[in-house]
Structure formats: structure tokens, C-alpha cells
Amino acid sequence: MTQKIDTHHLFLILKKSLAPLRNLLREHADKKYLRKYAPDDILAVLVAAATLRTSIKTTLKILSLRITEQKTNKNQPADPILKLIDKGLPPEWFISELLSKITTTEAENAVNRALKQQFYLAKRLGIIPEELYSAIDQHEIPVWSTPGRNLIVPINIKTKKYKYGHRYYVGALGNNGFWLAVAFIIERPPGHADHRDLGEICRFIVERIKTFTKKFKLRLNLADSKFFSKSVWGVFSELGVPSLCIAPKNSKVKKMVLHHHRKNHYNYAPGAYPYRLGENTFTLLIVPRPRYKREASKHNTEDDIVNNYVTLLTNTSPNGIINASFEFRSRCTKGLCGAIRSWIETKSERDYRERSNIEVLFRMGEAVRSRSNTIKPQIRVLLYGLTLILYNVYVIWRKLLEESTVSDVEGGEGKKRGVMV
Fold first, then answer.
1. How does pLDDT run across 329-341, given as a tens digit for each residue?
2. Contact assessment for residue 41 and residue 89, using Cβ atoms and an 8 Å cutoff
3. What pTM did the predictor assign?
């Protein structure tokens, strides 16, 4: 039955999104406590801790005060978070004991099932664009703990006092400002039983992306310079995924940029050259920065020239063939040469800029990350994954509201967009 969109649907989306986590808690819960506390009650506390950006202990105190206020003042509007509580507010020891029974792999799998469920929910609601980009990126969270234990790895935080922490990888799908997280994996330190290198992590994420995009058009898979490696691009080539990433300006890339600049008689123009990385050959795109962004120097050194170009690595070609390299260099702007120039410039000016949306995902995820000083990695992994689930809930709900508003403007009253969750 199709209904008008209201806040009731927000709670339905949230409950469906949290179903895999609820099932995981039910599996490990002691049956004698299920009569008094339901898994929904624990999830309500975790969601409240995320939205309040505080610890579980502090959240329990706040929720207890809110429940007391609601009982004394019945005319007060109902607290939306309290609607998630089914039987009662569970004590802190019960939550800690239950979450400690979960393994890291179980938490990771439950989060991925939740992300999968959210994607297919958005697909059923018809709010996913037909043409999609995918993006892969990593997020680091500093942690005060002993390196090599509890999934602690060296991180690249600029502040020197934070040298170690957790690093997790996320795969996202979207276009035109609508992006959903679809894959989540935590990095294990070397020597861990479930350790995966960067290539294996990317394989896991890309295989999930390919599964989700069977009935959609995947335009490009986007990554930054951290993924410029033989193992990663070997996976992209093997799985046949059209990909694009920033190429770090190492000595080999610098020589190719300077060679390109000389061949164009010291004029700034786009070009493409075969670039061998491991056992595969890809295409290095050399794109000049816009004139207003170029650094003007009196000496015009080689470094100045190189900095005025953007270098990208791709496994696609203008004719759409994947894993095909090509070479192009011309200052002509008409005909076939003009079309190839336009294709190269589009990769840097439009396509690669879509990658910034996954960084927005991480920033918004940090706004709903609960704080914890626990040394138990499974609890932290569950809290990290919860930020992605809540981000997806927000994106789906915002898209539904936007389309409902458009329908109100275009169709007037009586033609509002309906939704069936």
C-alpha cells in the first residue's frame, strides 16, 4: 500500500536498516535476559550514542532522564529516540557483555548485510540513478593503544602524537549528490589471521560493487593516489572495472610529463601515453590545469611545469574498451582530435571530481560516531559500521523528501510521491 511520506517511514527505514545488527545481537543474547531487554533496546542506545556523539554510559544517563521527564509531563512531545526502545533501558554491563561476545568478523559481516539491504531498499524505492560512479577510500581513526594489538595499525595522521589507530575501507556508489556506502572492511595488522593486503581489500569491495551494479551502468570506479599500486590495478584489470585514479608524480611520471610538454613545443595541452604498472599496461592521462590555477614562475623550472599538470591513470579508452591503452598528443581542437581532447579533459574536470563525495561521507559519518575508550576491537568495528548505516538512512530519507517536494511543486496537491517501505 502506497502512503504519503511522513516521519513514520523514517523509523521504518531505520528499523529495516538495523535488522542485520538486531539479528546478530539476538544470536548472542542470553535467553534469560531477552524477556526483560530486547535487541531493539540495545540498538536504540547505540543509535542515541551516535547521534549525541558521546559514550554509551553518558547516553544511558541522558535517556534515563528523558524517560523520567516524559512520564512526569505527558503533554510533552514524544522523544523520537525513545520510540526505538521496546521493553526497557538496558544497563551498561548488559550492553558491554553482549557486545563482547561478538567477533570482529561477525560485526563486519552484519554491517555489510545492512549496507546491502539499504541499497536494495533504495533500488526498490526507485531513487538510485541509472548511471553510477563507484569510489573506494580509506578512513583512519586515532586510538591510544599498543601497536599490533586490537587491529591497531600505523596511520598517516598529520598530528605527531597520533601515530596508531584503526583504518577501515569503504566502497560507495552514487551520482549527482546521491551516494550510498555499500562495502565496509577493517584493516587487520600483518600477522593477523584475517590479514588482507590492499589488493585483496579492493577485490572484496569491487566484487560487491559489481554485484550491486548488474542492472545499472557503472561509469567509472574512482580512487585517489593511495590506490596507485600494482596489486590494486591488477585487481581492476582482472575484474574489468573501468577505473580512474590520481597518478603520483614519481620520477617516471615526471619524465613523461616533461617529454609531453617538449613535444607540444612548451605549450600546455592534454595528452595520453601507455603506462606499465606491474604486468599490465594502462593509460596515463596528462591534463594541464586551468590557466587561472597555473603557477607562474620567473624561472619556469621543471618542477613548476610538472605542477601545472594533473596526472591520472585509467584503464579505459575513448571508444569505451576496458584494459586498452592508447597514445595521444595534439594541439588540434577539431574533429577526432578535438573529441579525444574533450574525453581526456572530462576525466579530470567532471568524472574525477565525483570522488569527493566519499570524503563527504566520511565527514558526515564522523558527526554520528559514538565515543568509546574500549580496547575490544569488535565493539569499535560495530560502532564504525553504524556510522555508515546511519549515513545511508539520512541519504535515503533526504532523497525521498526531495522527490516528494518536487512532486508537490510540479503536480500540486493530490499528486504527491508515495512510498512503500
1. 887 878 788 888 8
2. yes
3. 0.89
